[in-house]
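Why do we care about 3D structure at all? Because function follows from shape, and shape follows, mostly, from sequence. That is the central idea of this module. The next example makes it concrete: a single protein chain, its amino acid sequence, and then its structure expressed as tokens.
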Amino acid sequence: MYAGPVYAVEEVEFLCPWCIADGSAADQFDADFTTADGAPSDVPAAVLEEIVRRTPGFAGWQQERWMFHCADGAEFLGRAGWEEVSALPGAVESLRLDGGWDDAAMRNLSADGDLTGYLFRCRHCGLGLAYADCT
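And the structure:
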């Protein structure tokens, strides 16, 4: 059971990236930095722990989530618009499968707009993965 001080999110202005990577920030603040909801069953628990407790998260419009492929966590490439998503093989198909996005909607993706793509790449096979959400 965590017995250290309780911090309000507003009280924490900066987290050392090395403290996130080694897990000490997660331990000190009893924090998860992202979610692994929906991870495939073949992803080992150690990988999920690494992503949730020792990987910096990112901000999205709705609930952020990590993408997985080849029984591992994918590499987060960033917020993306149509140009970035369509340039990475597999990412467009990933959007179609994930959210049922059609071509017309996907062409409205913007890295800083109301419909934003979140782009990942498999660390093993290089396949592009993406999901989108909006305001």
